[in-house]
Specification:
The complex is a heterotrimer. Chain B has a two-stranded antiparallel ribbon with strand order 1-2. Chain B is an all-alpha fold. In chain B, helix 5 packs across helix 7. Chain C has 10 helices and 10 strands. The chains are: A mainly alpha, B mainly alpha, C alpha/beta. Chains A and B meet through helix 1, helix 3, helix 4, helix 5 and helix 6 of A and helix 1, helix 4, helix 5, helix 6 and helix 7 of B.
Chain lengths: 292, 301, 251
């Protein structure tokens, strides 16, 4: 006698329920993603009219209400570079230590807990710390140096965790072969592991710097200046910065033309998103070219 | 072949020590931050009586340093963000990891990453110009700068974190679990909820905790859209009136205080509270992961 | 003349697997010595001890001596890097480095500081010829090594191990992933190489052991049971356990 597996009616009902469930999930996903697109497009539309050579290359005038935002752009650029200088070597070094040198022990667990904690500290607390240590205690004053150091510590966890993941992804077999051919541990890292992990590491660095470039709270008391008549000339100078500038003109300046606000937001967005795009491109090209 | 030279041993030793120093730097930095906050913030307890600190009035100019309304503000906004962000974030993560076809996934993942990269000032900016007037009209409120506005935007900030961590966790569930469930006759829908999600439980929980952590720690967005009124939220309607978070307080007032004054030290004290909260979240999250891993190891061994 | 003398070697890993118990063995020069036996017998462990690759693993205790040309290489003062240059190793799965064919071969030379193009070029050609791979790859030396077939990759690994002109070659189931034709090529290459090198090989089948062994050692759970010339051990083994394994009663 043939046994019916499932009554067709129940099967159809189950299929319908499933399709409904999937659609709900799909709608939720669209609900997450659509606003992103709308935001970007909207800012682009509203902000583009403000973009001109004068806007990008000139200084603010009339209390920020007209003129350009060059010092903010340059400031953000300097801060990003400064953050990279301090966080990249330290971060990659720490990742190499965790992945290639240290055996799992109580100490490495403590290091990992410390990294997770650094990642969770609110950005404004970093600002407090930066203010106290770099601006006041070490007497760097409100400066690019203080801001970069603060942002660097904040960016460290991102760089360490993505770099470690990239290093661990390199097959262990390569290391064994290299050692058997007479390489030292550092030679193996330098010649095989690090080059193979480089795209992943680079992606992590760029994403970390992207976040640093967009942060306001850590730079509020450590580097940001409301208005400077000239570009910063040394690491000990304060500087304007795009995120802070946007905050100021959106909340502190009465009678601020909307267009300039959108224009500033657009420039910041372009700065940040282009880093995002570069990182994504590096990641997908590396995946295609991988030799293992 | 006769032996040739190679890297001298002492160079290897130097490099190894440099790298080891880098490795321990994370511990050094956390320690530094913690001790510094303590040194600048703990003197508060000497200058300001505890009663004042836990009172419900925050009015520093006249010496009222009640932190409770600020704590309440942070909690309300974060709670709202969690209620919105967790279902949306998890739903999106499940969709991306389990339901979406390959082409959709390739599209959605980068887009979510873009959301994660949006600076919080930009979100706050749009909050001021678009969201808050909209909510004011739509919900007929006296002002659009409320905790609710903040919650919505904070959800937008927490969601990318939740989505990417949860999606990684779901992705990591071995194919064999799903295949086994399907082979037993479960539908894909049942498999997701009864097999895959429970298996990814610890990663999903981590995702949620990290999202909550981001929400609590967010500064600029809340500073721009929650109205900055340090009033203790006492009822559900408080969600729709202005409040102020701890983070916004520090950011807004730090620039105006004299170094070493009571106000300065209280702000650092608030910093300690924030640090402790994020520490607690991380400890709980890693304890959950650790216990879950041990349980799975016992089951699988 | 014995190239390698193993004296009372005992080794334990932290997880207790694949250890060695009081193994004593003499490996003659310019011959193929085969270590065979069921899994877990300690054969790979022994190979990895000879080139000190075990330093990377979790070894709890090790005692005894391993003499290469009369010198104990387990001694703490041994220059391990120099030692590994004298010993080449081929693993079970072909692991080509993620570089071009040429770079795979010059890698070990560059590690040792060799920069002269002439020497690098000479080593490349020589080792590829010795591994019977030259004709197949001479026109594509600058292509990625992963583009080669499985059998070619394994012969590349063999060539790579020859680049530094070592004295000893260790092979751990080198043909386990290869088709019969590639296997045959590797085996005949080894027969030619034994004139210059000392070869120690863990075979992936009894038949392979019987085909190429000049001397063979039977390992069972970390102990050396029997060691005899290849001609006799596979036809008339002295120990009952060896006989049982060869006849397939276990393993």
């Amino acid at each position: 006698m043939l046994i019916r597996i499932t009554a067709p009616k129940r099967q159809r009902a189950r299929h319908l329920a499933q399709r409904l469930g999937f659609s709900v999930l799909g709608l939720i996903a669209i609900g997450t993603v659509a606003p992103i697109l709308l935001v970007v497009v909207y800012i682009a539309i509203q902000g583009t009219p403000a973009i001109s050579l004068e806007f990008l290359a000139g200084f603010p005038s009339n209390g920020m209400r007209s003129g350009g935002i060059l010092p903010a752009i340059v400031g953000t650029f300097y801060l990003t570079v400064g953050t990279a200088i301090f966080s990249v070597p330290l971060g990659i070094g720490a990742a190499i230590y965790l992945s290639e040198y240290a055996a799992e022990s109580r100490w490495t667990r403590m290091i990992r807990i410390a990294i997770i904690n650094l990642a969770g500290i609110p950005s404004v607390v970093y600002g407090l710390f930066g203010l106290g240590i770099f601006v006041i205690f070490l007497q760097f004053g409100t400066s690019i140096l203080a801001g970069s150091l603060t942002l660097a510590i904040m960016t460290l966890p991102v760089i360490i965790s993505t770099a470690e993941e990239a290093l661990r992804a390199v097959p262990q077999a390569f290391r064994v072969v290299s050692i058997s051919l007479g390489a030292t541990r550092w030679q193996t890292i330098r010649r095989i592991v690090l080059p193979q992990a480089l795209p992943g590491i680079l992606t992590g660095i760029i994403l970390g710097l992207e976040r640093a470039a967009g942060e306001t709270a850590p730079i509020l008391f450590t580097v940001a200046a409301f208005f400077l008549p000239r570009l910063p000339r040394s690491p000990f100078d304060a500087t304007m910065a795009l995120p802070y500038h946007l905050f100021v003109i959106a909340t502190q300046v009465p009678g601020m033309p909307i267009q300039i606000q959108y224009g500033t937001a657009l420039v910041l967005l372009v700065f940040v998103l282009s880093m995002n795009i570069i990182a994504t491109v590096i990641r997908s090209r590396a995946r295609a070219r991988r030799q293992w | 072949m006769k032996i040739m030279k190679s890297t001298p041993a002492w160079i290897e030793i130097i490099i190894a020590s440099l790298i080891k120093t880098c490795g321990y730097s994370a511990i050094v930095f956390v320690g530094m931050i913690f001790f510094f906050l303590l040194s600048e913030g703990l003197p508060t307890l000497a200058k300001v009586p505890l009663q004042t600190l836990v009172s419900t009035r925050w009015y520093p100019i006249e010496g009222y340093f009640g932190i409770t309304p600020l704590l309440g503000g942070s909690l309300v906004v974060t709670l709202g963000a969690t209620l919105v962000g967790v279902p949306v974030g998890l739903g999106t993560a499940i969709f991306i990891a389990e339901v979406a076809p390959r082409w959709a996934r390739e599209l959605l993942k980068p887009l979510v990453e873009v959301l994660g990269g949006l600076p919080s000032v930009v979100l706050g900016f749009l909050g001021i110009l678009i969201l808050s007037p909209f909510l004011r009209q739509f919900l007929d409120l006296p002002t659009g700068l409320t905790a609710f506005t903040g919650s919505l935007l904070l959800a937008g900030i927490a969601i990318p974190t939740i989505v990417s961590v949860a999606e990684d966790a779901l992705d990591a569930v071995p194919r064999s679990y799903r295949d086994a469930a399907l082979a037993l006759g479960a539908t894909e829908w049942q498999t997701i909820w009864l097999v895959t999600l429970p298996a990814a439980r610890s990663g999903v929980l981590t995702a949620v905790m990290l999202g909550i952590g981001r929400a609590i720690g967010e500064t600029m967005t809340v500073m721009m859209v929650t109205g900055n009124a340090p009033v203790l939220p006492t009822s559900i309607s408080a969600l729709f009136s202005p409040i102020r978070t701890m983070t916004a307080t520090i950011a807004a007032e730090m620039g105006e205080v004299a170094t070493g004054s009571a106000h300065y030290q209280v702000l650092f004290f608030i910093g300690i509270v924030l640090f402790m909260i994020s520490l607690a979240i991380n400890v709980i999250a890693s304890a959950v992961v650790f216990r879950q891993r041990r349980r799975s190891e016992r089951i699988l061994s | 003349m014995n190239k390698i003398q193993i004296e009372h070697l005992s080794l334990t890993y932290s997880d207790g697997k694949e250890s060695l118990k009081d193994v004593s063995l003499d490996i003659p020069a310019n011959a193929i010595s085969v270590l065979f036996g069921p899994a877990g017998g300690g054969k790979s462990t022994l190979l990895r001890t000879i080139n000190r690759l075990n330093d990377l693993a979790d070894v709890v205790s090790i005692s005894g001596r391993v003499l290469l040309d009369g010198e104990d290489i387990l001694d703490a003062k041994t220059d391990v890097i120099a030692l590994r240059r004298r010993i080449g190793m081929v693993f079970a799965r072909p692991v080509v480095l993620p570089m071009t064919i040429r770079q795979n071969l010059t890698y070990s030379l560059e590690l040792a500081g060799e920069r002269r193009m002439s020497r690098l070029e000479e080593a490349t050609v020589r080792s590829l010829e010795q591994a019977a791979l030259w004709d197949e790859v001479k026109d594509r030396l600058d292509e990625p090594a992963v583009a080669l077939s499985g059998g070619q990759q394994q012969r590349l690994c063999l060539a790579r191990s020859l680049a530094l002109e070592p004295e000893v070659i260790l092979l751990d189931e080198p043909t386990s992933g290869l088709d019969p034709i590639s296997t045959g090529k590797v085996e005949s290459t080894l027969q030619k190489l034994k004139e210059q090198y000392t070869i120690i090989l863990v075979p992936h089948s009894i038949q392979q052991a019987a085909r190429i062994a000049d001397h063979a050692a039977f390992f069972l759970q970390g102990e050396l049971i029997e060691y005899a010339p290849g001609k006799t051990i596979f036809t008339t083994p002295s120990d009952q356990r060896t006989q049982d394994y060869i006849e397939g009663r276990f393993g």
